[in-house]
Amino acid sequence: MAPIRLELTARLADALGLLDAPGVRVVSAEPAPDELLLTVHAADYVEAVRRASTRPVASGLRFGLGTTDVPTFPGMHEAGARICAASREVALAVWAGQAGHGVNFTGGLHHAMPAAASGFCVYNDVGVAIRALLDAGAQRVAYVDVDVHHGDGVEKIFWDDPRVLTVSLHENGRVLFPGTGFPEEIGGPHASGTAVNVALPPGTSDAGWLRAFHSVVPPLLRAFEPEVLVTQQGCDSHVLDPLAHLALSLDAQRASYEALHEFAHEFCDGRWVAFGGGGYEVVDVVPRAWAHLIAIAAHRPVAPGADVPDSWRDYVTARCGRAAPQRMTDGADTGYRAWSTGYDPADAIDRVVLATRKAIFPLHGLDPYFD
After folding, report:
1. In this predicted structure, what is the pLDDT of residue 58?
2. Which residues in the chain come in under a pLDDT of 50?
3. Which residues lie closer than 8 Å to 317 by C-beta, 6 or more apart?
4. 111, 170, 238, 261: which is the annotated catalytic residue?
C-alpha cells in the first residue's frame, strides 16, 4: 500500500489532462469526525486506532493492529479518517446530483471490519460511503468489487441489510487472503441473496474473468434495480501483481471499468461512485489502471493505444529509478464468450460461475442456466 502508487496515479491523471478537464472537480477532505467512523466501526476500535496512531508499536496490539499486514504509524488515524471523509463526500455529491460520477482512488479499503483492521485496511471507507447513502435516503445500493481479494469487510458490514447488494469477484479464498468469499455465503437471514461471491481459480485470465463478470453482474443489477452503483477497482488482479495469482491484462481491467460505467447509466440513472483498492505493481499497473478509471468517469476515455506522456515517464525514472510503460495498454484482446453460448461443465470458470448463479439467481427470480 505504498503511498507512491497514489502519487503516481495522480500525476499520470494530471499529465493526461484529466484533473482539469471540463466538468471535473478535484476536492480535498478533512479527517472524518468520530461520529462518521462510528456509523460502521465500534467505538473501542476507533479509540484503539487513535492510540496506536500517536504511540505506534511494532506488534502486540489488539484489533488486528500492529501486524505485518497492518503496521501502526504516526498519523494512522488521521490518514484513514481523511479517506473515509473523502469517500463519503464523493458518494453524497453523486447522490445529491452535484456530480454525475465520483472517484476516490485513495479509497476502497474493503477489508476493514467493524472492530478490526485487516489486509492493509484500517477504516472501511466504502462502508462509510454506503452507510451515508442509506442515511441520505437511498433504498437500494449495489456494490461491485473487482479486487483480486474478497471484499469481506464491506460484505460483513451489510451482511443482513437487504438494501445493499454486494458482489465480489476474486481469487478463490482457498488459495488467497482473506480465505472467504465462497458461493454459499449469500447474506444474513433478512437479506438472503444480497451477498454474491464469485471465487475464481488461480490463473484466470482475461476471457474467463470477463465471462464470469458479465455472467453474474448485469443480470443481478437488472433484477436488484439499484439507485446508485458503488464499485471498488482494486487492480491486483493483473498478471504482474506480486500478491495474487490471477492473470488479467490492463485492457481487461479497463473493459470492466467501461462496463461498470455503462451499468451505472443503464440501471442507476448514471449515479456511480468508484474507489481504488488493492494493487501492488505500483509503476506498470496501478497508475495506468486508475487513470483509465478517472478518464472513463470523466467521460474523457483515454484510448488504450495512447502513448503515456513523456513527462510522467521521466518523473517515474527520476523518482523510482526504473523505466515506465510507454502506452496505456498491454495490447491484449478483451473478447469473451457470453453465458448465452451455453454452460460447459469441463470449463473451470463455468463451474465457478454456475455455482454462484445456482446459489443466488433463484433468490432474485433468475434462471441459473439461461439468461
Report:
1. 62
2. none
3. 323, 324
4. 111
